[in-house]
Design goal:
The structure holds 2 protein chains of 2 kinds.
Chain A: H1 9-17, H2 21-26, H3 28-39
Chain B: H1 9-17, H2 23-37, E1 44-47, H3 49-64, E2 76-80, H4 107-115, E3 118-123, H5 157-164, E4 170-175, H6 181-187, E5 190-193, E6 213-218, H7 221-231, E7 261-264, H8 267-270, H9 277-292, E8 296-299, H10 305-330, H11 337-343, H12 351-371, E9 377-381, H13 393-399, H14 407-411, E10 415-422, E11 428-434, H15 440-454, H16 463-470
Parallel strand pairs in B: 2-3, 2-4, 7-8, 7-9
Antiparallel strand pairs in B: 1-3, 4-6, 5-6, 5-10, 9-11, 10-11
Classes of the chains: A mainly alpha, B alpha/beta.
Chain lengths: ~70, ~475
Amino acid sequence: MNESPKIPESVRLMAEQHGLGKALKLFPEGVRAAAERGQKPLGAPPKGNSPIASPAPIFNPARFEK
Amino acid sequence: MTDLAWLTVAEGAALLRAKKLSPVEWTKALLDRIAAIDEHYNAFLVVTADKALAQAKAAEAEIAKGQYRGPMHGVPYAAKDIFDIEGMATTCHSKIRMNHKAASDAFVVKKLRDTGAVLLGKVALHEFATGGPAFDLPWPPARNPWNRDLHPGGSSSGSGSALAAGMAPAALGTDTGGSVRNPATCCGIVGMKPTYGAVSLSGVFPLTYSLDHVGPMTRTVEDNAILFHAIAGHDPDDPTTAVREPADCLKDLKSGLKGLRVGVIEHFYKSDAEAVPEQAQAIEQAIGVLQKLGASVKTVRVSPLPLWTDCNRTIHTSEAYAIHEKDVQERPEDFAALTRNRLLPGAFVSAAKYIRAQQLRAALCREMAGAMRDLDAVVTLSSLCMPCRIDDPAAVAKTYDQQARLVFNVTGTPAISVPTGFTNDGLPLAMQIAGHSFGEPMVYRIAQAYEAATGFTAKRPPIKLAARAVA
């Protein structure tokens, strides 16, 4: 709780937008590290796959019929 | 008769059915053992001694009357404290849930109740099945029976500890990025993450919505297959469960490996990351054993391990944050530091990144299915490292990605951790055997043949010495 790192303004703004004001006050280094990790870009998919050809998991309404 | 602490489910079931052992006797022996040694291992959060004895007496009476229900009838087990049990708190090992009270049993707990199994109590975990071994929570972390100073693996840490210390022959765990297989690896037991949809998640507090799996944990492969069969099956209240009869994992369990085709994903631990020599040498020897037993073995390649990790972690952190957002915002100080640090990144993952991770997941699933097209199973390492000190949070955090377990949470396909030997210091080593979707019978068959050939699951940690040393 006694962390006192310099928090980039962009992280501070984002954290506050996300309702993390209390976490930012108590654990600023934790919030800074979390912002870095959360925003890290995702790796490229295997060759031959494009977002258009790879839909997100298919929603199947029939599965909800008991 | 074998010491009741180390009786396997299969051995115990045979004795119970033949009326050579009473469920009450077995249950009492384990309750006495828990009372005697668990202060050193912290495996149990709650011991339900009265209820256990009542269930054991009921099982005894039924078996005496010839009303034998099956191989879990009268068998004691423990449940990770993430499964609802009517009238009890499902604490998830968290201060935040200390006052919770479950209205009904989780589906798998009900299934086990119907089989006549005896619940010994609820066991420790990493808070909300994430984070790590924390010392800033209302309960201490579970300890590794092979060395109390070392990480027992998690998040199903209490399940692994209770099994390895001979306090229960069977336990329930959950696995989102390896949480059944990690404690299985660290504690020298057997842990299966089944196919997504094979086992109901109803009444299990979620860590994520699309990566969670309930898994059986035991000391032997056969016991694991027995427990899996008892808990698998369609649940009308869980639309993610498959509408199909659970496969019979015992039928071909001892059919051997002749003619089977096994792939080895060695780039996960040889080039994508470098495993410690002990783990790498143990799996090389294990592959040799599989070949000697008649399996043909070939190396296969899929995407590099860091891409699988990226995919799992992005989905994991986003979905976990969605579950815990309100508490992270309003009472972040009530989480353990390790848990908070695992949850917070989810606040910063964009919707676009989450969607791309789900698209990546589909691509990776296709890739794995293609790599396995002509194979019965693949093997790879479970942990790339050895357990670190339990009280070193920085070292614990480093272990999160030193593993190849989360790959099979991405694919949703079954993967089991089985012991592959021991280091010179006496610490367990392990590998994973992974199969096709709903291919649990084949995974168990390979694991069983390997276990029978090597006997590593028969080795026990030095419980009495450890208990004396800390007394």
